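Dear Dr. K.,

Following up on our conversation at the group meeting, I've run the structure prediction for Probable proton-coupled zinc antiporter SLC30A3 from Octodon degus. I'm pasting the input sequence below exactly as I used it, so you can double-check it against your construct before we proceed with anything downstream. Let me know if the numbering doesn't match what you have in your notebook.
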Amino acid sequence: MEPSPGDSAPGNSETTRLVSARERGGACGGLRLKSLFTEPSQPLPEEPKPAEMAFHHCHRDPLPQPGLSPERLQARRQLYAACAVCFVFMAGEVVGGYLAHSLAIMTDAAHLLADVGSMMGSLFSLWLSTRPATRTMTFGWHRSETLGALASVVSLWMVTGILLYLAVIRLLHSDYHIEGGAMLLTAGIAVCANLLMAFVLHQAGPPHSHGSRGAEYAPLEEGPGDPLPLGNTSVRAAFVHVLGDLLQSLGVLAASILIYFKPQYKVADPISTFLFSICALGSTAPTLRDVLRILMEGTPRSMGFEPVRDTLLSVPGVRATHELHLWALTLTYHVVSAHLAIDSTADPEAVLAEASSRLYSRFGFSSCTLQVEQYQPEMAQCLRCQEPPQA
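The predicted structure tokens came back this morning:
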């Protein structure tokens, strides 16, 4: 079979293949054409190295190490120490309240029992939160800490409700006797025990952090903002409980002094139980509010929707943003996701890298998930692309 004229010229065949490649690949084909005609003495353009490409990668932080973080290790040590102190003095209050026939002392012992249970639950949730993420639990077990705090608050409210009922019964019938000396001694020991536990569980407010693992963060544009909450949710809940118990112990001590010197005023025992149990319930309200906010996927209290939105819109190339969601797994583990509508001339990788960097550095998010898409004019009328209304 005779070769055709086009086949007899190797150069024509090569040129035809190059032109086809250029037509199919556009600019990329042009780059291939240039590289094929480069002289051997000239070095070919180097491919981007992995270290250079990492700048555009969204996973800036190293993989978390297994086990508890230093903050959680400190929380576990605090809970162990407070749990031991609480158990010892709870047993002493049970004995002292029984000998003194004091409902107020038994109320304080019951609150200490609730604290022991809540702290043991918190220790369990701290251990559970170290388990790695799975295909079923893709976020891991961080929220077990929040559930432990909720169980602690609910248990305290239940025990307090029972004791309030018993206090009302005593006020109505007045059929009881109080040993003033035993009550006074037990109440004094209870105050010392609660002071010791409060010292063990006290956490200083964490400093402003500009990293993705900051404990709490107030955006730079908003200034210091509200006082920063205590660091670990479980320790914070236990600390609030101890403060409520300390307040009640002081009330019981005042009532025991009155009953010791004026036995005819034994009604001070159920009255102190009634009043200071209400104070203990009120002291847990902030913790309950924060826990419910987390469980309802609410925006973290330390940041606002508008500052995060404005930060994303300030990224060069971003025309609009929608589907912006802010939530938290714990008080210190904040998460954000959003869609970024960019100009057709913008580099998606550069926009993604810059937007992620600003969110990490300005707000301390633990996880950022951003979707980049080309801006379309109809987005302005799309109901799903509109911002959510004010609460």
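Two things stood out to me. The domain at 305-381 is CATH 3.30.70.1350 (Alpha-Beta Plaits). The chain has twelve helices and three strands.

Best regards,
J.T.
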